[in-house]
Q: What sequence folds into this?
């Protein structure tokens, strides 16, 4: 990867708006100004809106954390986003996603063993990210399992992590140290 285009800014250079928005992130469940927010700090208002959406989608969505992390990995793989993969593959495993499933996603393969809920999320996200649409069958399966709120939250996860992937791919954000192997 080439040089990071938007590396961390020294705190003494932050504007009042950057300080306020960074403080909200640092004081929230993330506890630090983590990778995706480093480039976004250049637009503090956008960063603030994004972090609030992300906090909901990551920690409180109708899908629960295991399935949210699964959807995050599917989105990171679709965008070949190394930073999100490095951050979320270990979290997904900690939340109960099988290591074999994580490895299959990294290889752009459907995991061989999926729970019914995982299979529904996999089909929905794969179709949405690949085809920019969702089949009637996949839509009905997700709505039946998680309700319309769950379907909208799943779209939100794919969209939000697509946004972060685009930001970090364009900015060439440095990949943090991780226990996860990089995406091939």
A:
């Amino acid at each position: 990867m080439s040089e990071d285009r938007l590396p961390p800014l020294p705190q003494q250079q932050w504007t009042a708006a950057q300080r306020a928005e960074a403080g909200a992130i640092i004081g929230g469940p993330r506890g630090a100004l983590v990778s995706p927010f480093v480039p976004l700090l250049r637009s503090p208002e956008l960063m603030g809106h994004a972090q609030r959406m992300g906090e909901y989608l990551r920690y409180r969505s109708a899908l629960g954390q295991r399935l949210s992390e699964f959807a995050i990995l599917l989105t990171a793989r679709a965008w070949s986003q190394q930073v999100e993969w490095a951050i979320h593959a270990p979290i997904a495993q900690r939340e109960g996603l099988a290591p074999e499933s994580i490895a299959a996603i990294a290889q752009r393969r459907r995991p061989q063993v999926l729970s019914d809920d995982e299979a529904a999320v996999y089909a929905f996200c794969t179709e949405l990210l690949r085809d920019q649409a969702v089949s009637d069958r996949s839509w009905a399966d997700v709505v039946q399992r998680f309700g319309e709120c769950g379907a909208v939250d799943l779209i939100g996860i794919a969209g939000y992590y697509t946004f972060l992937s685009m930001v970090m791919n364009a900015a060439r954000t440095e990949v943090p140290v991780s226990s996860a192997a990089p995406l091939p």
Observations:
- The chain has a mean pLDDT of 96.
- The chain is about 65% helix and 0% strand.
